Amino acid sequence: MFELFENELNSLDTILDQVKKDSLGFLENLADRPTYVADQRIRPANLSEGGMGALGSLEAFKTHFDKLMVASPGPRYWGFVTGGATPAAIAGDWLTAVYDQNTQTTQGEGDVSAIVEQETIRLLRQLLYLPDDFNGGFVTGATMSNFTGLAVARQWAGERSGRDISREGVNGDMVVMAATPHSSVLKSLSMLGLGSSNMLRIETLDGREAMDLADFEKKLADNRDRPIVVNCSAGTVNTVDFDDIQAIVALKKRYDFWLHIDAAFGGFAACHPYYRHLLNGWEQADSITIDCHKWMNVPYDSAVSFVRKAHSRLQVSTFQNSNAPYLGDPSENFSYLNFLPENSRRFRALPAWFSLTAYGRNGFEWIVQNSIARAQELGNYIETSGHFELLAPVRLNVVCFRLKNEVEKMPEFLKKVNCRGKIFMTPTSLSGTSAVRAAFVNYRTGKDDIQVAISEMEEVLQVL
Ligand SMILES: *Cc1c(COP(=O)(O)O)cnc(C)c1O
């Protein structure tokens, strides 16, 4: 063996020990690490001839990059919808790299990782109270999960017009509609050749992001002669609004449409008895998107795509890896290769399996409750402060607000708050006004963190 690799294997113990020490250094000091780094320049280096070995690279990483890494898995990183990484999830993610399986078939040919993936899906379904009516598999994120659901929907719509889209290409006959779709749904329409600007917008209820059911039914009736795909939001990113799933499902009896539910983070509300009703009816969906790297606190990249088993044939015709005859009949030999966009896949289920088995129903119920409590605390402050105003009631785990006066100073306010490095929030726009959103997803976030945020915001107000 090449000497460098021989040395590496001989010092594996030292390498992993050092990685463990450095990891602890990062994780134990997360609350003090800045959530923002102003100077993000890195010095490009040339590829070396000899290589410095893993320990050398670790040193170089610490010297050059570590100080630039923000505390995104920390308790006060409230931008986007950023989850944390629980100890069990980190353990699972580490072992995913160590075991390095290519997770494909459940037929016992090769490794068993696909069987463990299906077991993980079963546990996740139990957590979320979803029936055994769905094929489930891991993808990189909710974007790919939305893509997967909509790709099978496209195949379904094609079949309605006598067209096998995966073989013959799109013909633009179908209609896709939604009220407040996530940007990734539009991106998926672009990737699918359906065109992001062809989304038919359903009107929203007054002051809400949820669809107006009267307008929805009208659009269903108007488009009766075309295959219809409906994207339903179960938790919008700005105000965590939910479309009325039960009412939408009821309309499925009278109108023929594919129902895709984007429940990227909102789906986890199902594991809390008090919020479960928001997802009532979702077991009737044709496809569902769930992100694990958000409210489940599994490291990036982890999401699940659920597609109704009744659509297995369509799912296989969408994703069949048809140039590989050695795979056999895809409907008999279940392989993720023929059910999801990617071919080679890492054992992405393992961190989720570790989390589900390590923390159980109570653990996830607690995370949901804790995030909602924190959002309510910040929301209460915003409502009573005099300086700020809520742009929507705090429905679940996101607080969307702005300055009460001097609204034009919003970008400057947020920039100043973020630059101080104690909390991180992201800008958004809601009904045409610029706003700030704070998303509570991380299990580490406590009451004290809300107090830190309040002091930070008040200090920035002094210098605005
Ligand atoms: C985050 C999110 C997405 C996109 O998810 P990624 O994991 O970033 O790909 C889609 N839909 C909703 C509702 C989301 O919150």
From TrEMBL:
Gene Ontology molecular-function annotations: transaminase activity
Keywords (A to Z) from UniProt: Aminotransferase, Decarboxylase, Lyase, Pyridoxal phosphate, Transferase
Secretion signal, residue range per the UniProt entry: none
Listed Pfam families: Pyridoxal_deC
Keyword field contains Cell cycle: no
Cofactor names: pyridoxal 5'-phosphate
PANTHER family for the chain: GROUP II PYRIDOXAL-5-PHOSPHATE DECARBOXYLASE (PTHR11999), MIP05841P (PTHR11999:SF70)
UniProt similarity note: Belongs to the group II decarboxylase family.
Name of the protein in question: Aspartate aminotransferase family protein
Organism: Dyadobacter endophyticus
Lineage: Bacteria, Pseudomonadati, Bacteroidota, Cytophagia, Cytophagales
